[in-house]
Amino acid sequence: MSPRRQKRQKEAIIRRHIVRTSRLGLALLVLGAALARLVSCATASRPGPSYVIAGAEIADGTGEPLRRGRVRVVGDHIAAVGDFASDPGERVISGDGRVLAPGFIDIHNHSSEGLQTDPAAETQVSQGITTVVLGPDGESPWPIADYLAERRSKPAAVNLLTMVGHATVREKVMGNDFKRPARAEEIEKMAALIEQGMREGAAGLSSGLEYEVGSYSETAELVALSRAAARYGGFYMTHIRDEAGKTLEALAEAIAIGERAPIPVQISHIKLGTVGVWGKTPEAIALIEAARTRGLDITADCYPYEAWHANIEVLVPDKRYDDPASVSRALADVGGASHITITNCRAHRDYEKRDMEEIARSAGITPVQLFIQIVREGGADVIGHSMTPEDVLAFYRQSWVMVGSDGGIGSEHPRGAGTFPKVLGRYVREGHLFALPEAIRKMTSMPAARLRLADRGRIAPGFAADLVLFDPATVIDRSTFAEPQMLSRGVQLVIVNGQPVWDNGRPTGVRPGRVLGATERAARP
Ligand SMILES: [Zn+2]
Fold this sequence. Notes:
- This protein has about 525 residues and is an alpha/beta fold.
- Helices cover about 40% and strands about 20% of the residues.
- Strand 1 and strand 2 (about 65-75) form a beta hairpin.
- The longest helix is centred in the N-terminal third of the chain and has 22 residues, at about 25-45.
- The chain is globular.
- The protein binds zinc ion (ZN).
């Protein structure tokens, strides 16, 4: 018997008892019924412990064709899928004309701080995201145990996992003296910290080899540290050493780390980010395909934009930020200074949201001089419009490429609020890049498999009730480079662990998100 039915039966017994005991009871019964109606009105907008979503086209996350059916949620999990009758009195949510999919899992998300200040995570749940993976690009919270304990005590609307960051532990061990290869005893200490992070619940090791701290590491260091993560069942997630002229070499290094450790590898935000490598997708794809054919477990994620977002220094791979020749070459590599927009510059707020060519012109200096000045004065964050749509789409077509935002709460790049609806609206509906079930697979079961989340990413009995109901005819991103926080449209209902966090264009205020990962994996065979 369902808890709901039990409760009703109990109420009926109590009512009968009242009627028998006194005439006053009758008055009480009337009052009680009125109260019950009031309560049921108040809870009608929020599904109770058991409810059915009926009439939707189910994309179950596996890539199988859509099929019409019903899904029953009991508590925090999916209890039934298919064609069944509702229990009398069971709440039924109409999914007519819409698609019901597993909640989207964002495998590259920068919300580790955002979740503290904005646990409702409106820009995330409005896209259908129900789980975020934090700590990418080599930088993670530390200690992992403290961070996860805080997230457990102050839950957010979404579930989360975290990686342990390579740069984070490298700085712990090497302090400010990180601009060199690490010594053997330092690598040992880093490995011990990574093992600690894994024991405390991290999902794997992340690196950001294009960034300052990680860039000085040698391949052998990363192999040793990957081994530490692999001992605890983790995977290696990497922002590779170069996303410009040496992308192919950097991909080869990531594959070598996977082979030598050995460890599954996730290439973060795969791209070809400079003019010199545009169009080299066949070569990049062939490298990864060859590794996969050799039996290596290599996958990647990709965001649906032709522009990246990082600090201004990444433009100059040889790190000679003061050298006009190096800087000039770097600006030419991305197609010119007009392709670089400043998003955040502490020393010059007036530069923000403007491109470097325009700023330089109005200041009466060259873009090269402007770059050197900005770095000297403390740097800036920039958006670089330096990928081609053809390359982005070519990567997306690969069966081993999943959707990941590289965004998060408060992102200054539109990917933070628009990634998943953009793929569904522009790539699937408008561009017919691939079929809807395949897009959903790239957002759900694929990242779940990479994260070894055995009970997420699919709509099937026993799986966690992380669900998204959206209108395939209207779902669309609205965030832009000028207004990166604009919420997406077309996602009607988002459910996390059985509870709605987003309903009809509004957050519900409920925060059922959990910390997922090692501890949960161990707890659930
Ligand atoms: Zn990155």
